[in-house]
Amino acid sequence: MAKKSPLQLVKDQFGDKAKLVEAIKNFTTEDLWLGRTNKDKGLDLVSNAKLLRLHAIFTEVKKTFGSRIKLIDAILGEAKRTKDAGHRAHFEKFPVPRLLDLYNSLVKRNKDAAKKAAPPVKAAKAPAKAEKPAAKKAAAPKKATSKK
Questions:
Q1: 79 with 87: CB under 8 angstroms?
Q2: Which of 57, 72, 114, 124 is the most exposed place for a label (fewest CB within 10 A)?
Q3: Mean pLDDT calculated for residue range 87-98
Q4: Residue 140's CB: how many other CB atoms inside 10 A?
Q5: Which residues contact 78 (CB under 8 A, 6 or more apart)?
Q6: What is the pTM of this model?
Q7: Contacting residues for 43 by C-beta, under 8 A, at least 6 apart
Q8: What is the mean predicted confidence (pLDDT) over 19-48?
Q9: Does residue 63 have a pLDDT over 50?
Q10: Which one-letter DSSP state was computed for residue 147?
Q11: b/e per residue 20-59 (b: at least 16 CB within 10 A)
């Protein structure tokens, strides 16, 4: 089966680009959106692929975290810096896609670090079969030496 183009995906999921733009504009509340887009251009001139990606990211963040602030709290929790106000202020300038990417990176890094920190589990050895003791070689008799 051939991979569908972004235009085909937009038509399948939303009908047309205008409906996709409206769906994304529903996410442009203070909870998820940073208001630093260019007002003259807007979302109408953004490519279908970027719009689909934005819709998927905003849907995931809305479902998982609820808002940007909760996503930032989760990032600070993963980084173990929940009380760092400067770090929080730094992250509040980031857009949602960058925050989600940062969160996923931190989760993956912490999971990998936990794997390395855990001691490897050794498999229990099966009891060895009782082997016959090795036969000792008979020592050759020492030659008597005589003193003359």
A1: yes
A2: 124
A3: 88
A4: 6
A5: 103, 106, 107, 110
A6: 0.66
A7: 21, 24, 25, 37, 51
A8: 74
A9: yes
A10: -
A11: bbebbeebeeeebbeeeeeeeeebeebebeebbebbebbe
